[in-house]
Amino acid sequence: MNILNKEDYIEQVSIDCVILGFHDRQLRVLLPKIKILKNIWTLPGGFILQNESLDDAALRILAERTGIRDIYLEQFRVFGSLERSSPGLMQDVLDFHWDKFLESGLTAEDVAWVQRRFISIGYYALVDIHKVVPVCSELDESCEWYDIKELPPLAFDHAEIVMKALGYLRLMLNHKLIGFNLLPETFTMKEVQDLYETVLDKPFRRNNFQKMILDLDILERLEKKFTGAANKAPYLYRFKNNIGEADLHLE
Fold this sequence. Notes:
CATH superfamily of the largest domain: Nucleoside Triphosphate Pyrophosphohydrolase
Number of domains: 2
Distance between the termini: 52 Å
């Protein structure tokens, strides 16, 4: 195990990723539970290799966690509060995995750097939740989706990072079409409205919302979605233009 070898990484800078998916009218966050004696979850994150850019590091971390590389990704904020570090928690992690570190030839001096103060660069990623197969790292007990409104106990300042990401997503969702990255390749108009109502936490009139979306002229209408009642089956849609080319102003 050489994941904590300080020679490989840029010290005291890390990346935390808020991976967001949408399912059953819930905005969900992918969270690993760290393998220690306490019930604590974290954001998927990691360190930046000496020979890679910030975006490449974030894409690598996301691919390791989700199994996919074609991800909408955006850097949204840097977190550098003096209070964000937790040396005690990091010591718990090191203690729990100490036998593995010894097997890898690492010493206490080799891994002491992870207990120092870190500045974290926050990214959020929007994914089709059905394409993601969550992957645990060697330090994780589990890696699962959680409703953003019912988060488990998060380490460090990760709860704040999630909420800041949500705020930024809401701001951007009201101007750009990035929200469609949370939907599958084909979708119904109801699924689009459910997504916007869930993320923005407010209702829209169905007819007004559909007209607003269709007037953008960005969707191609396909066959109806089979539901067992042909006369009530909704149409499926897909994008005919690149996401983000049109402005969307929701009042």
